[in-house]
Protein: BOS complex subunit TMEM147
Amino acid sequence: MLVLATFFPVPGSQRDAVTLDAFQDVKNPLTLEFFKASIDLADLIGMYIALSRIPGRGHSKCLTAGIGWGTAELILSRFLTIWVGAKGIEFNWRYIQMSFDANISMVQHIMTAALVWLWSRHDVKPSFYPVVAILAIIGVYKGLLIDIFTLASHIDPWTSLVIKLLITAFLGALTIRVYSTVA
Structure:
């Protein structure tokens, strides 16, 4: 979050005269979004460190790290918007969509924690390491790919949410399949 706030300020916000915006000369918005999504690779390193510090069995580590990471992401990015907006006088479906998206994101974080845990294991078959790496990379760039597809095909937000749900469920099923071979 700190790296995102430092290098990718919100468009239209006032910026100081001295800024660390290294990507201000990037003209293509897709390249900028790719860089933003690539910062999530650092989250995998943070998840690895968190999983190495949590005592216990594999499934409890994955659930603890995944739910904790998902809850922190929810509080820092969506909680205030949902809390203030949903308590308003006028009903809006956007807050229902945001809450569904938060639940899908929670499953994504648990899946990511399981993949990082699988990567750190030494008893995983060597043929599964590429599968784990590919699933983790797809998980990192899934949001960007869905956004590009949604914008290119002019899909409404509900359909985009269903697509996100189906892709997350598919990746989760693959992760459970690989996880079941070890656990």
